[in-house]
Amino acid sequence: MLKYHMPLYRPPSEGENLIIQATLGCSFNRCTFCSMYHEKTYTERSIDDVLLDIDQGASEWSNASRVFLADGDALALPTDHLIKILDHLALRLPKLTRVSCYALPANLLKKSLAELTLLQEHKLNLLYYGIESGHAPLLKTIHKGATPWGMEEGLLKAEQAKMKISATVVLGLAGQDGWKEHIDGTVELLKKAPINYLSTLQLFLDDSVRPQFLAGFKSAFKFQDDWAILTEQYRLIENLTTLPKRVIFRSNHASNALALAGNLPKDRQRLLSEIKAAQEGTKSLRPDFLRGL
Ligand code: SF4
């Protein structure tokens, strides 16, 4: 049976797909709000071990058509290493149509257009990408290792390489003092950077990272409550009037108080009406006990 190095994380939309661990942990591991890979030392797994896992996965699930390369950012691997993995996946899984992985902004920037195009041609065609915020000072505060202009450049390059991007934004990330700048900077970035899917998450801090997260802010961090998060959500969607391309929007991650789904900008008005209904108490929020990461 295919064995994994735990803990194992994957995007909710990859829950029914084959997962192969190409790396362990996250090559960056410094975002102050994130505890996912604190217990793991970043490791590039040997190509032989990964190919054996692919053989095992294919023997258990020969009809798999979608594969997620874990852990935190398989895009950190050298391109020739990734190509070997992708070629073996294609060899062992005849129905393969899509390979995806998490991609750090810095690692996407490091890959050339030619490398990304080559990877896309070998079916690495979906990247999960944490924007978190488009506000430069906030990105610095949370140690994201990224800037809005760097993210714009990387996302434009991925688009040119015909890769699809599923991006996330974290509501509540700036607290009560900086929320408007957080949302407005994010809107500005999203209006320039082409993405295919957008999800909003709600800030959820594990106890182990709470002190380091709070210490990054110059003044005492004041958390947003659910009503303030709805105001952030409203301002975000209200201002996404034009986008480089149609975006499939979701806020159905378990961290969210309000689940929303639609296409942007087409469904803007309907999504805003749903947020309004929640603000007025006619649409209920997800109870606390059902929230999490
Ligand atoms: S948010 Fe992503 S890039 Fe940042 S530490 Fe966590 S896994 Fe790594």
Give a summary of the structure in a few sentences:
With 293 residues, the protein is an alpha/beta fold.
Describe the model.
The chain is of the alpha/beta class and 293 residues long. The chain has one domain (14-282): Alpha-Beta Barrel (TIM Barrel). It is built from ten helices and ten strands. The strands form two sheets. The protein has an eight-stranded mixed sheet with strand order 1-4-5-6-7-8-9-10. Strands 2-3 form a two-stranded antiparallel sheet. The longest helix is centred in the middle third of the chain and has 18 residues, at 175-192. The model has no long low-confidence stretch (mean pLDDT 95). Bound molecules: iron/sulfur cluster.
Per DSSP, what share of the residues sits in E-state strands of 2 or more residues? 15-25%
Order of helices and strands: EEEHEHEHHEHHEHEHHEEH
Q: Provide the CATH topology.
A: TIM Barrel
Mean pLDDT: 95
Global Rg: 19 Å
* Biggest sheet details: 8 strands, mixed
Shape: globular
Strand order of the largest sheet: 1-4-5-6-7-8-9-10
Measure the end-to-end span.
27 Å
Judged by helices, strands and strand pairing, the structural class is alpha/beta
Number of strands: 10
So, CATH architecture?
Answer: Alpha-Beta Barrel
Low-pLDDT regions: none
Question: Which oligomerization state do the chains in this entry correspond to?
Answer: single chain
